[in-house]
Specification:
By secondary structure, the protein is of the alpha/beta class. It contains 12 helices and 20 strands. The strands form 6 sheets. The chain has a 5-stranded mixed β-sheet, with helices on both faces. Helix 3 crosses helix 4. The longest helix has 22 residues. It starts with a strand and ends in a 5-residue tail after the last strand.
């Protein structure tokens, strides 16, 4: 498994792509097109939203699991863009149990966020939350419903009977027409998606029984998790390692390695607490050098020093076996480099994550300083050639987290990484 340890945007797609070389299947198990993975291959940039990163390898079967919510138009557009770039999506499998996103979900996402005003959550307004809400309320439509037009129309009619009055009377929005939506989804989307629909749970277990290698990639990250994140400024699903069992349909005994991806610093998009945030010129530099703008939304990310209080909590919740550290090169010109090792809350030092949200909002970072290395790392591919200060920084992170760092990226290119142990 590859999971994010921060607030997303850690570079999970990068290491998913790297590890996919030795995999037979790569599986997305939660989230929707509110998350983006950027991969740079031979100078060509691929920005993926729904299709698993392993699609770039012809030997990999990419799988979208039941825990994902899917906007079929977005999925079709992504497959078309990949095809134009010479990437074959014919191997893609989509769970029939995955839920569908509709335009009314997006409309509700927009108006609900607007009505929250200064308390807005900072959602991507892609309809992800409302789609998951319908799933929990047991009124959602699934991918498999596309295969039965009669059932599809009946279910959609029931949902619109509820959604249209809400949109019209509460939010002063135009209602959605049943036949227009049914035609769009059944006549335009179904023919493109139907060849990919599969029993993905059976597919995964057949692969496991055959001794194949499977990689599960999470979207978003630990602190955007619905249960374990900085609620309510979270996503609507469970990106943590435990989410793979529900979102893909496998038991925990099948997972033998959990790689936590962390930036050498930290960033966040949207609202919510951020104890180690930098609002000075150093923060601006991290944004500029690290190109910290959302893959999908283009929103400017908030940046700060690495927070090992959060990292230690992520290690616990996800049972991390090792770390993959990204964007070490972004720190090349900074000296000193700071790391948040604890919080001060109401005059007390706290080395573990506060469980109460008010305490997180009041937390002040306690930093330790390390010397910078002042050297361009982008061409380094051997750990032995790292400057001593960079090696010390990585070792400090390992000591704080309590797990080893086995992969480190030093640039955006596919092969700009250092393996601290053999990549499996």
């Amino acid at each position: 498994m590859v999971v994010g340890t921060q607030w997303g945007d850690e570079g999970k797609g990068r290491f998913t792509d790297l590890l996919s070389r030795q995999m037979d299947m790569v599986v997305r198990y939660q989230g929707g097109h509110n998350a983006g993975h950027t991969l740079v291959v031979d100078g060509q940039t691929f920005k993926l939203q729904l299709v698993p990163s392993g699609v770039l390898y012809p030997h990999v079967t990419p799988v979208i699991g039941n825990g994902v919510v899917i906007d079929p138009m977005v999925l079709i557009d992504e497959m078309d863009r990949l095809a134009e770039a010479g990437v074959d999506c014919g191997r893609l499998k989509v769970s029939g149990n995955a839920h569908l996103i509709f335009p009314y979900h997006q409309a509700l996402d927009v108006v609900a966020e607007r009505h929250l005003g200064r308390n807005k959550l900072g959602t991507t307004k892609r309809g992800i939350g409302p789609a998951y809400a319908d799933k929990a309320a047991r009124v959602g439509l699934r991918v498999q419903d596309l295969l039965d037009p009669k059932i599809f129309r009946e279910k959609l009619g029931v949902v619109l009977h509820e959604k249209n009055p809400l949109l019209a009377k509460v939010y002063n929005r135009l209602p959605f027409d049943l036949e227009t939506l049914a035609t769009q989804y059944l006549e335009e989307c179904r023919p493109r998606i139907e060849p990919h629909i599969a029993d993905t749970v059976g597919l995964l277990h057949d692969a496991l029984e055959a001794g194949q290698n499977l990689l599960f990639e999470g979207a978003q990250a630990m602190f955007l998790d619905l249960d374990h994140g900085t609620y309510p400024f979270v996503t609507s699903s469970n990106p943590v390692a435990g989410g793979v069992c529900v979102g893909a349909g496998i038991g925990p005994r099948h997972v033998d390695r959990v790689i936590g991806v962390t930036k050498a610093y930290i960033s966040r998009v949207g609202s919510g607490p951020f104890p180690s945030e930098l609002t000075d010129e150093v923060g601006d530099r991290l944004v500029d050098v690290g190109r910290e703008y959302g893959t999908n939304t283009k929103r400017r990310r908030r940046c700060g020093w690495l927070d090992t209080v959060m990292l230690r909590h992520a290690v616990r919740v996800n049972s991390l076996s090792d770390l993959a550290i990204t964007k070490l090169d972004v720190l090349d010109a900074l000296d000193p480099i700071k790391v948040c090792v604890a919080y001060e809350v109401d005059g007390q030092r706290r080395s573990s994550m506060p469980y109460h949200q008010s305490e997180i909002h009041r937390a002040s970072p306690i930093f330790e300083e390390l010397p910078g290395w002042g050297t361009d790392l982008s061409a380094v591919s051997d750990r032995a050639k790292l400057p001593g200060e960079a090696e010390d920084y990585l070792r400090f992170i390992e000591e704080q987290a309590g797990v080893p760092a086995t992969l480190v990226s030093v640039g955006p290119g596919r092969d700009q990484f250092i393996a601290f142990s053999p990549v499996p």
